[in-house]
Automatic annotation (TrEMBL):
Protein name: ABC transporter ATP-binding protein
Family: Belongs to the ABC transporter superfamily.
Domain of life of the source: Bacteria
Pfam families on file: ABC_tran (PF00005)
Amino acid sequence: MLELVDVHASYGKVRVLRGVNLKVEAGESVALLGRNGVGKTTTLRTIMGLLPASGGRIEFNGQDLRTVAAHRIAGRGIGYVPQGRGIFPMLTVFENLCIGLKGKPPEDRLKYVFERFPRLRERVDQAGGTLSGGEQQMLAIARCLVLEPRLLILDEPTEGIMPKLVNEIRHEIQRANQAGMSVLLVEQNVKTALKLCTRAFIMEKGVVVYDGTTAQLRAEPELIHRYLGLAL
Ligand SMILES: Nc1ncnc2c1ncn2[C@@H]1O[C@H](COP(=O)(O)OP(=O)(O)OP(=O)(O)O)[C@@H](O)[C@H]1O
C-alpha cells in the first residue's frame, strides 16, 4: 500500500534521511522505531509532502506521492496525526471535525467517531484548545477518522498524556486497524509499539537498519537493546 524506496530529505544543508526503505501492506500495523533524532518524524513529514524528498520514491497504492501536492495527500486516503496534535485551538470540536471536508461530516461518520470517543461528543461545542492533552489527541485522531483513510499515520500519539486516556487511545488505534485500516505508528514506548503492531522498522541516523516482525523483536530482546539501547 505504501512504499518508500531510497528516500532522501534534508533541512537546508542538513541531510536527515539518507535512503529510507519502508513498506506498509494493506491492513498491516507497522511501528517506526528509533532513538531520538534519527529521522522518524522527518520520514512521516516527507511522506505527507510537508518536506520535499530530494531523492527516492514514495508510492501509495501505486501512485507516486511526490507528484501530489501536500494538501491533496489526505484526500488520497492517508490520515496524519502529527506530533503535538495539530488541532485548531480556536475552533470548536465540531469545527475541527469539519476540517478537510466541504461542509459537515456525514452523519454516520460523526456517529462512528463519537461512539469511539464519547468525550468528544460531550465537548462538541468546546474550543479545541480548552480540551485536555489526551482529549486533543483524540480529536486529532477523530479528525482523521471522519475522512475514512485507508492508512492512518500517527506520530507519538500517547506522548505526555495521562495514563487513563493513553489506554483509550491505544485501544482505538487497535480497533481502527482491526476494522481494516492500515497503521504506521511512530512510538517511543516500545512495549506499546510491540503490542499494537505486527511489523517494525528501526531507524538509525536516517536509514532503516531493521525490518522484521514484532514477534521476532519480542523473541530476541537483544535486538531492541542493540538498536534502541533499551531493555524490554
Ligand atoms: N525544522 C528543522 N530544521 C533543521 N533540522 C531539523 C528540523 N526538524 C528536525 N531537524 C533535525 O533532523 C533530525 C531528525 O529529526 P526528527 O524529528 O525526524 O527525529 P525523530 O527520530 O522523530 O526524533 P524524536 O524521537 O526526538 O522526535 C534531528 O537531528 C533534528 O534536529
